[in-house]
Amino acid sequence: MKINFHIILQSLAFILMGFNYNSQEKTSYRERHVTITSKDNFKQHGVLYTPQNSGKLTPAIVVGHGSAPSTYEDVGYYTYLAQKLGFVVLAYDKRGVGESKGIYRRFNLSESQESFDLLSNDMSLWVDFLARQQGVDSNNIGLLGGSQAGWIMPFTAYKNNKVKFIISGEGTPLSAGEEQYFSELTDDRLDGPMSIKEADAKMSEFNGPKGFDPRDILKKIDVPILWIFGTSDPVIPVDASIRELKTMEHPKHEIVVLKNGNHDFVNVETGVSYNLLEYIGPWLAKIGVSK
Prior knowledge:
The protein contains ten helices and eight strands. With 291 residues, it is an alpha/beta fold. This is Prolyl oligopeptidase family serine peptidase.
């Protein structure tokens, strides 16, 4: 996976259109900058968004990151979704980015196990932080994010039993090596050297190093996961990912497929963004997460 700025660019596009995720809910959300200390003793910075006048315990979400060096503002798209659903939200600067200390690591297949272990440790600490906050329903804390977060969030849930649900946008249950192989075949582009269909047909030929492989983790964790894919995503091997999930037959995994959707959840035929709330809201109700 190359460094992926898709969601960051999506957030910027909405801002240019006059839509600011971080101010969208200012009339109904309190915003507080907070810090924690990572396991390796680096200060990590985040922003806690709390609904005003809730009057009851509220479910909460930690927003995850893709592979880019992103701040809490750069994942504002997911923060917005969680706010629209009424959650307490914690978004943070990825380690080594913004006000978070430590070293930001570019994606590197050979280091993916170690790197994802570190990133999931950070996310787990933010889950613990949320669980301690007044007004948070500590029995209903979930994770929401896209792309690389699709690996980090299950790893976090494996380490922290406070995680009760996961919403993964354009993530994959395949290994980092398989994803990188597909990404190189398409060059992360619809007009790349190989089409999505052609690249998918080559997936069975992969025999390289896998790096981080989430399969065992996904089989072990008993956490509901909503997987959202787009059929026109040149970054993630969507068809192979869906085949893998169907093979796993995990009773708590559900798949949503967006026809002609790309890595930004945009229909490439119409140019219109999918409203993910139409899929996430009913799924949350189905698994019993109430606000």
